[in-house]
Amino acid sequence: MNSFGDVMRNLDWSVPMEILMSIIPALVCITLHELSHGYVAYKLGDNTAKNMGRLTLNPIKHIDIFGLIMMVAFKFGWAKPVPVDMRNFKHPKRDMAITALAGPVSNVLICCIVLFIYGLIFLPCKLSGSSFLDSVLNMVYITAYLSIALAIFNIIPIPPLDGSKVLFSLMSDESYYKLMRYEHYGMIILLVLIASDVLGAPLQMVTQAVFKFLFAFAEWGFSLSRILFY
Hints:
Strand content: under 5%
Distance between the termini: 52 Å
Structural class: mainly alpha
Number of helices: 11
Radius of gyration: 20 Å
Helix content: over 70%
């Protein structure tokens, strides 16, 4: 009879490791995305997120389990929205649009920074021959990709995504408040569009194109690494 240790050694750990290597980057991306919303709202005069403990780097405060699963499985997902009370803003519609844009903008910046780091550490990680450092390198790459995927997904102008808040801010006050009442139906529409691949395939194409363009930051990091260390 095999011992418990033998059974554990013979298990295929590749799939759990792949899932783990996606979950950690996903948590980083959604946490910084939602924190950016809350911080900008706070700076613009709304303390709601701060009072509810959402101005934190603790991912547990921001996780939407289903959104996290979607992000790991399909590379498009969401977090628990940061509460914002636009009545606290001096310029409600404008400030709401700025707050909404803060999330995607932060993800683009994160993608650029992480890609630069990826390029910078690529040679040391590969030349080390360490499987652990290879895993770290892969996680850095996934973080960059998920970050830009989250940014692009969120600029879709369908409620409750950030793009809808920017679009609605351009409308009359009456139209804005009417449309915001139906915000919770938007997620159903999104899920149908993604499941039917009406939205999934175009999103993937756009994400890959933008990621390829931003990969220049990784190339700059790689060039700097060669100058500094080799």
